[in-house]
Write a structure and sequence with these properties.
single chain, 429 residues, 3-stranded antiparallel sheet
Length: 429
Amino acid sequence: MCTMLKDNAMKELDDLLVLSEKVGLSLRAGEQTSKHFSDRLSIVSHNANVLKSEADRMCDLCSNAERVIDKIDEEFCKLTGLDAADFTFLAIATALQTARWIIIDCLTDFGSGTERDERVNHNDKAIKDAEQESKDSTVEEMSDVGDFRRRSDVIRGRTWNEILTEPVPFDVIDGSAQFGLGLSGKNHREMTLGHDPVLGWFFGTINILTDTTTIKNLRTFVMSRDPKLHFSTETIFTNALMSAWYNCKLDKKRLAAAITMEAIHLRSDFFTKAGLPIPIITSVLPDLSSSLYKDNYDALCLAKDVGIVAMQAKMSILINIVIAQLHGYFFDPKKHQSRDLYEVKTHKILLYSNILAESSNVITVAVRHLMGDVCAWKHLDFGGLLVLLWRIIKDVNFMYKVREDFVSSKFKEIVVGDYEKRLWPIKES
């Protein structure tokens, strides 16, 4: 801006010099009148005053820039503030979000593991028949000649036929007592990584390929099937991993068969009374995993609770979408300065309604806890809280960007000003 003012001032000075030269020539030649000289001089004088006042204004603006920006910010807050109609939307949105978490809390039983007593036994005939049917079907699809050799002293690769027709190695406890593992029929699913619904796809597959068993502290044991499946010797997991890699290179069908067998076994245990442990924490937090498993909270209970949280989040998002769409229909170009500023009002409504609804949920849970309800945390609206966290990140970022653009554009308009419109044009003679 200072460069622009300097250039304009130099241009006016050049015009004045040219004018003086022309006037001098005119007086000597008698070609120009004194009136023409007076008019030109008035124009130059006026433009010089305009530039001077503009320079003074810029100096004042530079010294008071912070105050000017604060005024622009106040204007932004005024334009994006909620009016009576917006408060109506806010009240409706808050009521819907609050009703949502109350209804879902009444209709669901988050954090409950008692349903395990209603499931079938792990050796139920229907489960065993389904498991055998899956095995037979896979064997038919992968017809081959199997090698049924038995070796219990070293890690070996099992043929795909052995994998699909014999029990998985990590489903027995015979012989484990000699290693002091403390395995039993009740806890072997929680102790062995092959039963982990997530980690089992890796560790369980390796164990099936190599006839080994890996427990949650990564201790790995070679299993023998002579005369029946039992713990034989201890090894290290890297040996089992290298053996599995080598045998998969020999026959790719072995990997497919092992993955299939892992899937069949996990599915057969998932819905039984024994169930499966909560994924991953078995190896990360073994004590917590054991405690939850003993309290009848397993992978199926976790899946149910994840479904409840997902339903809470989905319903919260759905309400936000409906409110945003309805509020958007009330945008009036004649009344509202811009669509972006109106969108800020919409985001405020959604953010404030979610905050109010989730605050009521947290307060309710806190009161229940103070009244002696040790399970009050189960009534928290976890899905709604996740959506609120997402809205805080999204809405605050959007409002900050719109505010920044508004302040920047307004300040630019003030800096540029309208001095060019006040300049008088100099007409060539």
